[in-house]
Amino acid sequence: MPPVTKDLRFLSACLLFVLSTGLFPAAAQRYFAPDNWIDLLNLAGPMPEKLLSTRTAVFYDYTLTEKELLTAQEYFQRSGVDAVAYFDLDGLMASHDITRAYGDYLLKREFSNLVFIEKGDTGYRITITVFNGKETVLDPKQSAWSASNPIFTEALKTMYRTSASGLKKLNLLINDQPETGLTINPILGKRNEFFAIDLKVDPLAVPKFGDEALDKELEQIFKDNYTLKYKMTEPGVPEKDLRKQGSLYVLCIVRTRGSVAKQLMGYEVKPGETALASVTYPGPQQELKTIPSEQVVYKVYFKHIDSGNVFLGTKWDADVTWQQALLNQLRGMKAELRLN
Prior knowledge:
The chain is an alpha/beta fold. It has two domains: 32-166, 3-Layer(aba) Sandwich (Rossmann fold), CATH 3.40.50; 191-336, no CATH class. The protein is 30% helix and 23% strand. It has helices spanning 3-21, 66-79, 96-108, 152-166, 212-225, 239-244, 258-264, 322-336; strands at residues 55-60, 82-88, 111-120, 123-130, 144-149, 191-192, 204-207, 230-233, 249-257, 275-280, 287-292, 296-304, 310-311.
């Protein structure tokens, strides 16, 4: 089966899991949401009632230009949308830990609304909804207002007219410039660029995808490459329950663009860097490969459940498929810790 087909099946499994357990279940262990997670909202709803009187966070497509971001902020200012902070859209749902970190950030800074700006081959889509006030950020089938148009300014004008006709404007002091480059830290404990030596004795939880073929593949990779204690667990089991079942560590996967994944996990990303060097193990020997920084990649790491400490490995080893990213982590760990 070619890698692209595997990846599509992987995303389909994520979609099925999201649909069956809710959009992003609180405290549940799952990997990340499918690419079309915005489509899972109820996009026929009205604008949030307090959109023009409370704070808003904007999540935007990375292909938006600086000029387009300035235009968006101008329309937000004119409308009364207090767009305080801007973030990469594809980082929000990159993993359970990352979504939780955004939820904590939004809650502590008293955000009430969310704007998602998408840019594609056929144009733009602006989606506006409330922040649910939880670490999941959104609820299943949550009501949202949405407008699409091939021309960005036309979509913004629709937003302006809709808000002006039905909402009371109380936000008056709104920034002229979009504030980007804000830092989100998804790591609750210590960040470690080495492997967890305690895994030699402590059991690891390996959550399933909920897809029979993918789960067989996941289990086979562990069977062939991981000689320590591990347990395949059902998808959606909260980490506290994994701990009660005897697991001290849990497998985690991040999926997003390489530059975003690297930045979110605490690595340095140089401005203008167009390619990222990554260690890979296509066989037993380590090799170095270069991946475009805007390529979607998978980064695997292990997390200690009680402390929240994460163990990333000694080298950046993200890859373009989850299978290879997992092999990179397991084989790198085997070599570094000199496991049999």
